[in-house]
Records
---
Amino acid sequence: MPRSIRALVAARAGEPLDVLRLESRPVPTPSAGQALIRVRATPIHASDLHVLRGRYGFTPGFPTVGGHMECVGRIEALGSDTGGFEVGERVVAAAVPAVPGSPADGTWQEYLVADTHRLLPVPDRLSDSTACQLAVNPLTALLLVTRELDVQPGEWLLQTAAGSTVGRLVIQLCGHLGIRTINVVRRRAAVEEIEALGGDEVICTEDEDLPQRVAAVAGPAGVRKAIDCVAGPVGAQVSQALAPGGEVVVYGALSTHRQTDPAALTIPLQARSVIYETKVVRGFWLNRWFGTASPEDALRALSEVRGLVADEVLTIPQGQPFPLERFAEAVPLAEAPAHGTKPLFVFEDGPGEVDK
């Protein structure tokens, strides 16, 4: 066991590359009900960067270790009177802070203390790249489709940002469950790619009217269930396209990611449509789901995701590995347009082990 570890720390809120510094810290000590994880790989999500900017749904206490989402590693030590796991066991840590709930340690460090009820054992046949991305995007896709909206086989599901990570996972999951998807993209060049992935219908907002195309595809019955990750005018069009009594769950606001004025983070809904057609617009946030779900329910959902990924129903693209020292190169890739692969911080135990 080393005496100190490397950690990527933000002293204050601000633009990530302005506030992040590589620091040496003491090895943390697990308490009862906790485990010390030797981190092998951890992703850099765009939402991680919004946390550091102070523009996310929660604000950590600064200074803070970055990466408030997920990682994979092996258990190095267990707190006193802590059962259910073994030293050396390979696990995913769902490090998403629960809201409401107590703070969670950031994952951008070599060793991490995590509550054992947030740990999921993972088989060695899943690569570190795949395992470290299990607990956020695939879980979000599963919850949106099967729990938040309970979409049934044969039903239509309308979704925006179909080319995003969650959007692609939703297409794969719906294909597996027999659900038909109407997928919204903003570039004509993306249409063929989404069709090849298994999207049943694709609407390009660059040159198509969203509500008209939805009506043409779904027919008189319309679409009763939708998920939106864009907000703004596109989110409003999704609401407009719903059948009477329909529901849209908003889980992101890609159209406003560079917006710093909270008053501008809006969805301009048509009041007549919402009132007279009794449509529902509501939000979903994984942090709040962790804050309301029981530990047993959260573990069941994570276990279901693990099974879907292990059975290759859901495919997580290989990430791009970076050592922690190259954070200035890695961090911007999380928000780079069409960067293609998720940047990951990796901590290698030996040559080539990260891609085992």
---
Amino acid sequence: MKTKLRLTTALLMIAGATAGYGQNYDSYQLKDYTLPNIKRSALDLGLGSNGDFATYHKQDGTAYNIEGRFSADFNHRVNTRRFISNQDFLVSLGGFQRDGVSDNDVKTSHFEVAGNYANQSQFYFNDPKKWFWQVGGTAQLSYQRDKVEDKSTYFTAKIIPKAGIGWGRIEDVTDARQAVYILDKLTSKGIMKKHLSDSEVNELAQVISTVKNKRFLDSRKHMIDEITTVSTYMADKGYTQSEGAEYFTTLYDYWLYGDLHQRLSGLEAGFSVQPGYAHTDPGEDYKINSLLMAAVLEMQYEKPINLYWQHSAELSLGYQYLRTKYEDDYFETAETNSGTLQGSYYLGYYPNSRTHLRAGIMEDLTITDDSYRKRYSATSLNCEAYYYVSPQFRIQGSAQIGYCATDDDYIFADKKWFGNYRITFTYSIF
């Protein structure tokens, strides 16, 4: 009897231990992760194609457009408890061919090359209170050439600085999701000695976030350093029971593919003023100078429901005064006041480390004192999909269909139903 009791107890202990090793991390809360101090840079090259269609209710017909574009995008990001900065410099060139609805069904072509710079920096007063100053803005230089019946060229320079105050914080929890991908796979292969607590998962994720800050000219040495750091940490903590080929190939695979989809968590709201100036040279006998003054109230909300689903919402309410002066004798100086309301909601699904799907609704409402356009409203349904082919090559696609209501008197602005698609191929240098 005693022998049977001992045998039963031993079997229960083994079963309990085995269940512990096979346990997954679906209950882990991404919102509880705090990003350590990081500094990262990335350079992406993009090649894309767009197309759209529209029906017009003031004119009987449809219009079609196809566009191609190449871009190089450099991004620099800094994140500490007291400072967050995101700087982006984009150079692009592209063009389109359009066969539209007009009196003569004139075909048009367009070519453009542009450089854009954007900066958003937040300086926090005190971390628990989450109040911050925000500064930044955008700048643009562009050249474009259009051909309808005659050729015309435009050069534009624009700068819009930004300053304001805000509350809250959006935390990037992507590295925490990568840590869970690694732990889930190692657990399923029986390599983990124990099931990590939420605090231990957070510590591992912080090691992952920290080691990514290092920069190497040699990508092979970079990968070796990252894999070595993470594997050494897990071995020193006694988390793994073997470090053979299966362990390292699994770690390598999810290091490459485990952080492809950005996951965010938190609530952030801010108010800013945005003065601006733009100069346009149409290549004719006159030039256009514009002065802008805008005030904007913005809110962003990100909530990971669990490891696979995500709520994302944005809301913006703004006022804008625009004064446009033409340096010639034919046009008068124009002044326009407008109010804008923009909002969006997306539900995201992240089934695995290579793919994500998002679907949502957007609203764009503008009311002005312009005699040509006093009201404009566009409501659309949107979806997008992403697939990661290799460490350098990614494919992203999106589609949109919507309904527009406006009292605009300009030609081609009276779209009722509209739709478009976008396919982008991205090749990353580093």
---
Amino acid sequence: MTATEAVAAKAVPDWRGGFGRLWTAAVVSRFGDSLRTAALPLLAASLTDDPLLIASVTACGFLPWLLFGLLGGAVADRVDQRRAMWAADLVRAALMAAFAVAVALGHAGIALLLVLAFALTTLQTLFDNAATALLPALVPTEALAAANARLMTGQQFAGGLLAAPLVPALLLAGDAVPYAADAVTYALAALLIASLRTGGPERPPRPAGSTLRKEMAEGLATLRRDRPLRWLCTATTLCNIGMGALIATLVVHVTDGLHAGNAGYAATITAYAVGGVAGGFLARRLAERTGRIRAVALAGTVQTGCLVLMGAVPVLAVSIAAMAVFGFMGTVWNVNQTTLMQERAPEGMLGRIAAAFRTLAVAGAPLGALLGGAAAAGWGPHTPALLAAALFALAVASLAPLIN
């Protein structure tokens, strides 16, 4: 093997062993999550016609990141990440099974939806930070970009192309079926992660007297000192405000504004997934040509145009096409953002830095969800997309210090 071939081989993650199991667990879990996330807004819309109340379900799903995100990252840097991940998935499996029973018995109300969204995301704060910190122990540094792209592409394929189109058919079989399926996928993912035999990343010993509070503060301070990550976090926060507004009201935009019904809603989120899968194949190559930050800025610029089209042209075909391109560029953004974080994090601090980044970035999503709901209620179902476009434009502008 030549030197060039050796480098190329290292740049591709090995499917055998740890990465293959982690990838399978992530894809299986995303399949179930997508069944739930596609069905839950429809259930909420069947329980109330108040757009603000429907948006509150989405907002409640983001709130735990504000309360527990930093704690989840500090814990992820302390404990066996594999054990944290499979334990969190087992609890989520139990919660989803109980919710499926409640739906089947007709006992699901808006209050229960709010509690469920809050509980699932609380567990996700630990799971996601542990997963981000574990990946560098499973693949070499040169392969991180490819590994992240494959993870996100697989999740988009399973979640959007396989799961989303099934939701209307599953709902015909019973309102509880998507949630029961999600419970099963959580249990399968837990088994796969528990079977991992690869050790976690190396960690330097903690200083004497170190506390979770001090370690959370270290994560925030390290993020603040790292100029590229700091500005990227600012841009991602603005985007997440826009995403909160869009996601929370997308079902209203499609079913009420476009009068496209459940089938139109399924087609729209499927188009988003198709674009996301395609973006996963090109995210790394685009970054190699432009650099990671420029690739992120390009993605945000194109996404802004897609949102303007959605809000200004209330036609189902336009929304479907716009969401496909939006999803494509979303994967480009996410792959390069995550890889840059993994590359720049000091040893033993990736969980805390990822937690600080996610907590600050996700902080805007509940606000965005409520703003989107208020905008839809006050000015019509198409205005949240325009609100999101303005926020994405600000996000791109905030990256200027890293480009110039």
